[in-house]
Design brief:
Elements: H1 3-7, E1 18-19, E2 25-27, E3 31-43, E4 46-53, E5 62-66, E6 70-77, E7 86-88, E8 109-115, E9 121-126, H2 133-138, E10 143-148, H3 150-153, E11 163-171, H4 183-188, E12 194-197, E13 200-201, E14 203-208, E15 211-218, E16 225-229, E17 235-240, E18 243-251, E19 254-256, E20 261-267, E21 276-281, E22 295-304, E23 329-334, E24 339-340, E25 348-349, E26 364-366, E27 371-377, E28 385-389, E29 394-400, E30 416-419, E31 424-430, E32 436-442, H5 445-449, E33 453-458
Parallel strand pairs: 1-14, 2-5, 3-6, 5-10, 11-15, 14-22, 23-27, 26-33
Antiparallel strand pairs: 3-4, 6-8, 7-9, 9-10, 11-12, 12-13, 15-20, 16-19, 16-21, 17-18, 17-20, 21-22, 24-25, 27-31, 28-30, 28-32, 29-31, 32-33
Length: about 450
């Protein structure tokens, strides 16, 4: 049995006793950040060699910026390999986006600087070098990028210690945090037996009897999570990939693929002090390679009585709907085929519409300000593909085959959309006035590094 087949099964932590690590805050108006190796303590006595940003030995600080501010970050690469940073979900100039061949060499520096145009919400950053994204992200390079505004602050949402970013990732830890995929891993993606939240194994978060805001990010290479509370209690969705939704939506589970985010409110006010419950991933159907198992991720322990008198807003932030009638073109991409590339490398190449990534090629050309419909066709596919578009946000128009509908948590602004085997998903996007060459790709990182990425140019 291959490593990939074995690692699909999560070895649930036997004890949730390690305090959840919460990233430090970095003001993005003027900041510095270094990518470097380090030794990370994950909890439960487990220590590994990892990669991190800034002073963190794994992951990186949470960058906070207000909408409309100029982001400035002096980046240094102290790794033994070239790297860069992609600002996932943010509308940035092409030269700042972390194009796969725009890298900073070991010992080098780069200045990131761009105006923050995005709506208030939860975004993130991670490396994006060609054929090394999976390896670098897996070993620890990732962090949150949170955008706020006066309009958001006026909503009175939970802040400070009650606003908790949660990046969930699975790792293989036997022998250390090493990235050494076999052919099975390169085919379906890299899965690990240990699930971490904010780089912590068996994490526990002590909470008060009040409402918390949790910003969920699936930062795994390939694993999908069906987030839910162990009690079956409902929570409120207030944001998707592209920021706050127009109104809160009550849900009991949210399915997130790699790269996707969900902003949720969880109310602990009705629970007695001493109560314990879990954030978990429920089993799901739709793909042969995962979803068969339910497992716990994070323990919540109610340790103190507090009253915040919080009332969820009736409305949040308007989401302008894009209508199919606005589209000037429709493009269809076949994402349902895989080809193997033999030889000693053991690489498995994943084509996107019959092509694999070539930085010298211009695959699609679009016009700034226009609206188009893009169709990702996985009708004949056997693998799961979360498709991610750089440069801006889109809306999910419809889905046919498989689940057959747009899911309730997909109805805001998005930058990543999940296509199960047998599904065809259509998105609608207005391309920003942000001219240059960008990429779109599968956010299963082994698929991305295996060539499942094309270029598109905004003119």
């Amino acid at each position: 049995m291959s490593n990939a087949a074995i690692a699909r099964t999560v070895a649930e932590s036997s004890a949730f006793v390690s305090p959840l690590a919460v990233p430090t805050i970095l003001d993005g108006v003027s900041a510095g950040l270094t990518a470097q190796p380090g030794t990370a303590s994950l909890g439960s006595g487990i220590t590994v060699n990892a990669l991190g940003y800034g002073k963190a030995p794994i992951l990186g600080p949470t960058i906070r910026v207000n909408q409309g501010e100029q982001f400035n970050l002096a980046f240094s690469n102290n790794l033994a390999e070239s790297t860069n940073i992609h600002w996932h979900g943010l509308e940035v100039p092409a030269s700042q986006d972390g194009y796969p061949t725009d890298v900073t060499v070991p010992g080098g520096t780069f200045q990131y600087s761009f105006p923050v145009k995005n709506r208030p919400g939860t975004y993130w950053y991670h490396p994006h070098p060609d054929m090394a994204t999976a390896s670098q992200a897996y070993r620890g390079l990732a962090g949150f990028f949170l955008v706020s505004s006066a309009e958001e602050e006026a909503l009175g949402l939970p802040t400070g210690e009650y606003d908790v970013p949660l990046v969930v990732q699975d790792k293989r830890l036997e022998g250390g945090l090493n990235y050494n995929p076999d052919m099975g891993d390169r085919t379906i993606g890299m899965f690990g037996e240990s699930v971490l939240a904010n780089g912590t194994i068996g994490p526990v978060l002590e909470v008060a009897t009040r409402t918390y805001r949790f910003r969920l990010l699936n930062g795994s290479n390939a694993r999908i999570y069906n987030f839910a509370l162990s009690t079956g209690a409902k929570f409120q969705l207030i944001g998707t990939d592209g920021g706050l939704t127009d109104a809160p939506l009550e849900l009991s589970a949210i399915l997130l693929a790699p790269g996707e985010r969900a902003d949720v409110l969880v109310n602990f006010s009705g629970l007695a002090v001493g109560t314990e419950l879990y954030l978990q991933s429920n089993a799901f159907t739709g793909t042969p390679s995962q979803g068969k198992q339910s497992f716990k991720i994070l323990k919540f322990k109610v340790t103190r009585q507090e009253s915040d008198n919080f009332t969820s807003p009736v409305s949040l932030m308007p989401v302008e709907p894009l209508a199919a009638s606005q589209a000037v073109a429709t493009r269809s991409f076949n994402i349902g085929h895989m080809m193997e590339h033999g030889g000693m490398s053991g690489m498995v190449m994943h084509p996107l519409d019959g092509k694999t990534f070539d930085p010298s090629r211009r695959d699609e050309v679009v016009k700034a300000g226009t609206v188009e419909i893009w169709e990702f066709d996985n009708t004949d596919g056997t693998e799961t593909h979360p498709m991610h578009l750089h440069a801006g946000q889109f809306q999910v128009l419809d889905r046919s085959g498989g689940r057959g509908v747009v899911q309730s948590w997909e109805k805001g602004w998005k930058d990543t959309v999940l296509a199960f085997p047998g599904e065809k998903v259509r998105i609608i996007v207005r391309f920003p006035d942000n001219k240059g060459k960008f990429v779109f790709h599968c956010h299963n990182l082994e698929h991305e590094d295996g060539g499942m990425m094309l270029n598109y140019e905004i003119q």
